Amino acid sequence: MGVPPYPTSLDLYAELRAATPASHQALLSDLFEHVTLWEVRAERARVGRTAAGQYQVAIDVVGRKTRADGEGKEAEVPMDDFVEIGVFAPGEGEGLGAPLYLKRHRIRSGAQTIRVTVPREPARAGADPHNKLIDRKRDDNVVDVETGAAAAPRVRT
Fold first, then answer.
1. Would 3 be classed as within a structural domain?
2. Which range (71-75, 91-95, 129-133) has the least confidence?
3. Are strands 55-68 and 80-88 parallel, antiparallel or unpaired?
4. Is the pLDDT of residue 146 over 70?
5. Any domain includes 152
6. pTM for this structure?
7. φ and ψ at 5, to 5 degrees?
8. Which residues of 133-157 are buried (b: 16+ CB within 10 A; e: fewer)?
């Protein structure tokens, strides 16, 4: 079992900080030093066919981050975090289907559009699709992809 002094959670956190690259130190702070809540939602996803036969998906995302103090009072803080963006093939029922694209993108506070290209026609897309962030409203992260001429984003070549 070891001998005193026994390690504590602070020792674990010190080891995590030492092993974590500088680019991820802010995430450690969000997860271990503060009560941080994210609100990441996908508002719309549109698809258009490229000249090469692939599919370009435009995902409209809104990001927001808050921190709560010791009394539970929340205050918005600037969001500038890497968040997983996912585009999925048709699945069964409400499932996401097989991932056609799953990579982290920088999401900032407010509205933004993320454009990705996938090899097959997608059915659903969104931000933080597997709900890894602490988000009170987890059902607005992924939306159905809109198809058709009216829905298609301007395809960049």
1. no
2. 91-95
3. unpaired
4. yes
5. no
6. 0.83
7. -80, 140
8. bebeeeeebbbebbbeeeebbebee
pLDDT at res. 100 = 97
Is residue 128 in a domain? Answer: yes
Going by their DSSP bridges, the two strands 124-127 and 80-88 should be labelled as antiparallel
Provide the pLDDT confidence category of residue 152 given band limits of 50, 70 and 90: low
Q: The tokens of 37 are what?
A: 């809540």
- Which of 67, 63, 93 minimizes the C-alpha distance to 80? 63
As given in the structure block, the two tokens for residue 12 are: 């674990």
Check whether the bond before 129 is cis (ω within 30° of 0).
no
CB neighbours (10 Å) of residue 41?
Answer: 20
Token pair 């802010």 is at which residue? 26
Which residues, 6 or more positions from 116, have their beta carbon under 8 angstroms from its beta carbon? 56, 57, 59, 85, 87, 101, 103
CA distance 157 to 155: 6
User: What does 50-89 look like in DSSP terms, one character per residue?
Assistant: -TTS-EEEEEEEEEEEEEE-TT--EEEE--EEEEEEEEE-
What's residue 149's pLDDT?
Answer: 56
* Band of residue 102 on the pLDDT scale cut at 50, 70, 90: very high
- What CATH code is carried by the domain that includes residue 65? 2.60.40
